Amino acid sequence: MKKIGLLGGTFDPPHLGHLLVAEEVYHALDLDEVWFIPSNDPPHKDSTDTNTEDRLEMTRMAVQTNHHFDVNTIEIERSGTSFTFDTVSSLVNTYQDTEFYFIMGGDMVEYLPKWHRIEELLELVSFVGVQRKGFELECEYPIIKVEIPMFEVSSTLIRNRVQGGGSTRYLLPERVETYIKERGLYGKR
Predict the structure, then answer these.
(1) Looking at residue 189, what is its pLDDT?
(2) Would residue 187 count as lying in a domain?
(3) Which of 87, 15, 24 is nearest to 58 (CA)?
(4) At 137, is the pLDDT very low, low, confident or very high (cuts 50, 70, 90)?
(5) Which range of residues forms the domain containing residue 128?
(6) Where is the Cytidyltransferase-like domain positioned along the sequence (predicted)?
(7) Which of 125, 34, 115 is nearest to 82 (CA)?
(8) Does residue 78 fall inside a structural domain?
(9) Which has the closest alpha carbon to 17: 157, 182, 181?
(10) Are strands 2-9 and 69-71 parallel, antiparallel or unpaired?
(11) Separation of alpha carbons 46 and 28, rounded Å
(12) pLDDT of 104-126, one tens digit each?
C-alpha cells in the first residue's frame, strides 16, 4: 500500500517552511510522496488577493526539485470552499490502494474539533501534527506527532517583507522569489 502525505494550504506564497515540514514528515513516516494541495477557497482563512494561477505556479516551482514532492490540483479544479473532508473523500475513492496522512502545523491541531465532518474524516485519513521542541500538540483526536527543526517563517511574514521592500532571501525557493519579483506580487499598495 502506498503512503502519501497531504499538505494543504493557500501557499500564498509557498516558502521553505512548507518544504521543510513536508521533507521532515516524509522521512519520519517513511512516506512514498508528499502532495501539496493548493486550496481554492479555504474555510478558515480570509480569501487571498493572489490569483489561483500564480499560487499554483509558485507551488509547482517550489516542489519541482524534489522527486518525492508533487502538486495535486483537486481543490482548484473543484472550485468553491475547500473542505478537507471533500478533498480526502475524493482522493480515497480515486486512489484506493493508498493510505493518506494529512499534515498540519501545530497551530491547526487545536481547531480539529471544529472541522467540517471531522468524525467521518478521521475514518479516512491519519492526521499528522508538526511539533516543535518545547510545544505539545493537545487534541482529543489521534494525532501522529512529528518534531521538526525550528524555522519561524510564514506566508504573512513574506508578504509583509515584500510589501515593505525587505529581503526574503533564505525564506523562499529562489525560483519562487524570482517569480514574485517578476510578477510584482505582494508589492506596495
Answers:
(1) 47
(2) no
(3) 15
(4) confident
(5) 2-152
(6) 6-161
(7) 115
(8) yes
(9) 157
(10) unpaired
(11) 32
(12) 988 788 888 899 999 999 999 99
